[in-house]
Design a protein that fits this description.
With about 400 residues, the chain is of the alpha/beta class. The chain contains 15 helices and 13 strands.
């Protein structure tokens, strides 16, 4: 029997009220139909008509399940799924499409979609799939609560061993992909950002990999391996410009980061270390002295995800960055939204006054590129120019 067929409509969690479901589709009739069916099941349903609005919803609210169309103008369902996975590995995401294809199915699996449904979706299928998703999320929440109450003894040695074996495999299959960052005014590639990937099927996304590292207390091991691998191609080809490298906040506490014999330090004068604004620097007791040490070695410092973090002023004060990277939520659909245009213009002008370079990441279309350039952004990054790849990619500016 199909295990999902026996799923009853979920009851409210203790003290939590009805389960919350986010429905995303650019077709009003579909949104209304899905909303009506799910509300009849007792869910609290929030419905939005585009991916960009959904991104704002998932960043400010918590949901027990997300049901999203794949094909939408601007931010599509796959991009929404990636955003969700960057901040929440557990909320189940169900993707719906009227045009099924391998090109959408593979990324859906890669980024951890729970289900991939083809329109038209019957009411019975919708109820079953969403019910199953909400139950899974409630179970995950209960497991977290049990872990907090019981401590690590609640995780069996067998479970740890199994996760550890998969993690070992992921480390062995670790790959570094590179995405170009262009300087638009010169129509040149200014450098490349190093992005981690794994060939391990059970950890298909970077989020899965880093979450497992944290659960196993092996994040340091993962980060050290990435720092050894990422500089390789850049060291062999200095003409490729700068290497933008994402630094985990806790890496600032690791003495191997400043080891003069490390591959990253060997090309420090061509490396920009990115520290996300989403993370707190409170975990680094001597952050000022460590940043000073990194600068002495030749590294430049960037604040990543500007506009998305909660510690903007303190991050700037402590890091004194040379570069800032605008969060992709500000870049997405910037050509359509006057508020985003005002923010980007103000940020780029302020950074220019401070002598800081600005990188606008997440550029996906010509319209976004044109508006960003008009607003003062010169360094640009995104799928519009090239997707991340295991080899350096030249950009065609024609």
């Amino acid at each position: 029997m199909d295990s999902q067929a026996a799923v009853a409509a979920p009851s409210p969690g203790e003290g939590r009220g009805p389960a919350r479901v986010l429905v995303v589709d650019d077709m009003p009739a579909v949104v209304r139909a899905f909303q009506r069916i799910l509300q009849a099941c007792g869910y609290q349903v929030e419905a939005v008509s585009d991916g960009a609005e959904a991104v704002e919803c998932v960043r400010s609210n918590r949901y027990d399940a997300v049901l999203s169309d794949i094909s939408m103008p601007g931010t599509d369902g796959l991009e929404l799924l990636k955003v969700i996975r960057e901040q929440d590995m557990e909320v189940p995401v169900i993707l719906v499409t009227g045009d099924p294809s391998v090109e959408t199915a593979i990324p859906a699996v890669e980024y951890g979609a729970l289900s991939y449904l083809v329109k038209p979706v019957s009411p019975d299928t919708l109820r079953k799939k969403v019910g199953w998703a909400v139950h899974l999320h409630q179970l995950a929440r209960m497991k977290r609560e049990a872990f907090r109450v019981l401590g690590e003894v609640s995780q069996s040695d067998a479970e740890k061993a199994e996760l550890g074996a998969v993690y070992d495999s992921a480390l062995e299959k670790l790959k570094i992909f590179y995405q170009p960052i262009v300087r638009w005014s010169e129509r040149t590639v200014a450098g490349y950002e190093a992005l981690v990937r794994s060939g391990e099927p059970e950890m298909p996304s970077p989020g899965h990999l880093f979450e497992a590292g944290e659960r196993l207390n092996r994040t340091v091991e993962l980060n050290r391996r990435i720092r050894v691998m990422a500089p390789g191609p850049m060291a062999d080809d200095p003409s490729r410009g700068l290497l933008f490298f994402n630094l985990h906040v806790l890496d600032l506490n690791d003495e191997t980061l400043v080891d003069p014999n490390s591959p990253l330090v060997a090309i420090a004068d061509r490396v920009v270390l990115e520290v996300t604004e989403r993370a707190s620097l409170d975990q680094v007791p001597a952050v000022r002295s460590r940043v000073a040490q990194l600068r002495e070695l030749g590294f430049r410092i960037a604040v990543d995800d500007l506009g998305a973090g909660y510690a903007g002023l303190s991050s700037f004060a402590l890091l004194e960055p040379d570069v800032v990277k605008l969060d992709m939520a500000l870049v997405r659909d910037v050509h359509k939204e006057a508020t985003k245009q005002r923010l980007v213009r103000s940020m780029t002008q302020l950074c220019a006054d401070m002598g800081l370079e600005v990188v606008a990441e997440g550029v996906e279309c010509e319209e976004e590129c044109q508006v960003l350039v008009e607003l003062g952004a010169d360094l640009l990054q995104g799928y519009y120019f090239a997707k991340p790849a295991p080899a350096f990619i030249d950009v065609d500016f024609q």
